[in-house]
Amino acid sequence: MKPPAYFYGTAWKEQDTQRLTELALESGFRAIDTANQRKHYFEAAVGAALAKNLVPRSELFIQTKFTFLSGQDERLPYDSKASIGVQVEQSFQSSLEHLGLDAVDSLVLHGPSQRTGWHQRDREAWASMEQLYETKKVRHLGVSNVTADQLQILCDEARVRPRFVQNRCYARFEWDLPVRALCATYGLTYQAFSLLTANQQVLGHGDVKALARKKNLLPSQLIFCFARQRGMICLIGTSSSKHMREDLVALRHELTDSELSLIDSIR
Ligand SMILES: NC(=O)c1ccc[n+]([C@@H]2O[C@H](COP(=O)([O-])OP(=O)(O)OC[C@H]3O[C@@H](n4cnc5c(N)ncnc54)[C@H](OP(=O)(O)O)[C@@H]3O)[C@@H](O)[C@H]2O)c1
Question: Which pTM value belongs to this model?
Answer without folding.
Answer: 0.98
